[in-house]
Amino acid sequence: MLEVVRPGDRLYRAVRDVYTATGRPAAVARPASTPEVVEALRFARDAGGPLSVRSGGHGISSVATNVEGTVIDLGLLNSVERIGDDLVRIGPGARWGDVAAALHPWGLAISSGDSGDVGVGGLATTGGVGLMGRAHGLTIDHLVAAEVVTADGTVRRVDAEQDPDLFWAIRGAGANVGIVTSFDFRADRVPVVGRATLQYRVDDVARFLRAWGETVEAAPREISAFLYLMGGEFALATIVYAGDDPQGAGRAFGPFTAVAPVLGQQAQLVPYAGVVTATHAPHRGQQGATTHTGLAVHLDEPITARLADLAGSGAVEMLQIRSTGGAINDVARDATAYAHRHQNFSVTAVSSMPFDEAWERVWPMMDGLYLSFETSFSTELLEAAFPPATLSRLRDIKRRVDPDDVFNQNFPVATPVSR
Ligand SMILES: Cc1cc2nc3c(=O)[nH]c(=O)nc-3n(C[C@H](O)[C@H](O)[C@H](O)COP(=O)(O)OP(=O)(O)OC[C@H]3O[C@@H](n4cnc5c(N)ncnc54)[C@H](O)[C@@H]3O)c2cc1C
């Protein structure tokens, strides 16, 4: 029987909030099977009001909870099964850290993001910029089939042959077209990876970012590198070498020690599961923040100067720079609803206070947007996330599979509105 948690129920406090926001939904449905997802969707549509779909509850835009509406919480659909040599079937409610731990004994791994607590459902329906991305592509590039419940309650199995339009749409804009209840991924054979962590002293942000960008782009594809710049004076880097050759890893890490004065460093071979671990900390809206984001082809002038101004302005607490490129850019831009296949970096600014004005000087330098790192929404941002041909195909699919715009919470394509 479908479990529905309401205000006053013992479990309500545990399921009302997400990582980035508190919520006050009228009901949280917790389906334990696909038929129960269908039932939960019917329940939500009958109830009216806002509908949120939640997998791991780590969405930065906080739309996986609401006020006075219904949440469909897929946390119980968290199984990880091996269904073939390198094929795995994963439920949307699994966390990426748990996925990495389950895949490791099979010698397999799937590149996800940098947080093991992020849910499979949210990340695998938008992109998945991960620490093996340059070597193995986005998370969505590993998807070979999925099960989707569409707005009318139909359960559809989608892949490249069967319902190819819907299969295309869930790889980048999944939240617009249905609820993905199961993902089949082709995993990579990755017994262990090299992981280096470096702490830098930063004297000149613009010069540092230029050097970082050049070093990342010159690195072999085995390298993916994420940088976290705090307050303009100090930076942390996590660099992953997707391979088990210690000499190769050492050679590939070497140039990163010349980017700026290194205050501390560590490198070791670890299972990928050691790079992304899940803490399962309860959600209480503890990480509420404003984030703005964009993609960049290179970290060169004038982007680096504008980012240096932003870092020095005090308006943001952190800049995060994730490598994309490599295998991510081997995929044709029209192959998935995530169409950004020529940029080398994802740039995200984070602050506990709004900083729209400060970001306005950086934004025109950006080339496209990965929606998972953005807390605002506008027609301009929608069009940056989905270039014209992508948006037009998406709207066409949306008209067919969700004519009533039931799934309208996360970068909705049907009716552009500002918020
Ligand atoms: C600390 C942190 C670090 C992160 N690092 C990275 C990173 O390195 N790389 C990266 O790519 N992303 C990263 N992200 C962004 C993350 O991928 C997205 O926020 C993602 O949406 C979270 O997935 P979730 O299932 O936990 O989210 P939820 O909050 O549960 O869902 C987010 C939204 O996704 C949609 N959704 C969820 N499940 C489904 C489903 N089954 N079917 C259809 N739509 C669904 C819904 O619209 C929902 O509102 C990070 C986020 C955080 C908080």
Can you give me a brief rundown of this structure?
By secondary structure, the chain is of the alpha+beta class.
Give a description of the structure.
By secondary structure, the protein is an alpha+beta fold. The protein has four domains: 3-73, Uridine Diphospho-n-acetylenolpyruvylglucosamine Reductase, domain 2 (2-Layer Sandwich), CATH 3.30.43.10; 80-189, Uridine Diphospho-n-acetylenolpyruvylglucosamine Reductase, domain 3, CATH 3.30.465; 193-270, Alpha-Beta Plaits; 290-385, Vanillyl-alcohol Oxidase, Chain A, domain 3 (3-Layer(aba) Sandwich), CATH 3.40.462.20. The protein has helices at residues 12-15, 34-47, 96-103, 120-123, 133-136, 164-173, 205-218, 246-253, 272-275, 303-313, 356-359, 379-385, 388-401; strands at 3-5, 27-30, 51-54, 70-73, 80-82, 87-90, 108-109, 143-149, 155-159, 179-186, 188-189, 193-201, 223-230, 234-241, 262-270, 290-296, 318-323, 345-351. A hairpin with a 5-residue loop joins β8 and β9. α7 (205-218) packs across α10 (303-313). The radius of gyration is 21 Å and the shape is globular.
List the helices and strands and how they pair.
Elements: E1 3-5, H1 12-15, E2 27-30, H2 34-47, E3 51-54, E4 70-73, E5 80-82, E6 87-90, H3 96-103, E7 108-109, H4 120-123, H5 133-136, E8 143-149, E9 155-159, H6 164-173, E10 179-186, E11 188-189, E12 193-201, H7 205-218, E13 223-230, E14 234-241, H8 246-253, E15 262-270, H9 272-275, E16 290-296, H10 303-313, E17 318-323, E18 345-351, H11 356-359, H12 379-385, H13 388-401
Bound molecules: flavin-adenine dinucleotide.
Residues 18-19, 52-60, 63-64, 74, 92, 113-115, 118-119, 121-123, 125-130, 174-175, 179-180, 322, 372, 409-410 line the site of flavin-adenine dinucleotide.
